[in-house]
Amino acid sequence: MNRKKKVVSTLKKKAKKANAKLAPHSNKPRYISKAEREKMALEAEVIQKEESNQQAGKAQEEQVSAE
Predict the structure, then answer these.
(1) pLDDT average, residue stretch 48-58
(2) Is the pTM of this model over 0.85?
(3) What are the C-alpha distances in Å from 25 to residues 5, 14, 50, 65?
(4) 3-state SS class at 55
(5) Is 23 left (phi over 0), alpha (psi -120 to 50) or beta?
(6) What stretches of 1-67 adopt beta strand conformation (E)?
(7) 24-51 burial by CB neighbour count: b if 16+ within 10 A, else e?
(8) Which of 10, 66, 63, 2 is nearest to 55 (CA)?
(9) Is the pLDDT of residue 30 over 90?
(10) Rounded to an integer, what distance in angstroms lies between the CA atom of residue 23 and that of residue 20?
(11) Distance separating alpha carbons of residues 54 and 62, to the nearest angstrom
């Protein structure tokens, strides 16, 4: 009886661990390193500059076509 109980409890522990691994842990966001944050900020800045340049170019085209 004791051996059977031990085997069953061992199998239950394994199943419990497997289910715990599959379950989502928390709503905590993924860690982003300082260097990665700076890189993302620079990319966002570059994109913003490109958009402003495109808008300025469109405004100039409209002025030229209006004249």
Answers:
(1) 85
(2) no
(3) 30, 18, 39, 59
(4) helix
(5) beta
(6) none
(7) eeeeeeeeeeeeeeeeeeeeeeeeeeee
(8) 63
(9) no
(10) 5
(11) 12
Residue in this structure with the two tokens 């599959």, named with its chain if needed: 22
Q: What does the DSSP 8-state code read for residue 23? A: S
Distance CA 28, CA 7 (A): 36
> How far apart are alpha carbons 9 and 3 in whole angstroms?
10
CA angle 22, 28, 29 (to 5 degrees): 105
Placement of tokens 């379950």 in the chain: 23
Residue 30 phi, psi dihedral angles, 5° rounding: -65, 140
Alpha helix positions (H), the chain: 2-22, 34-66
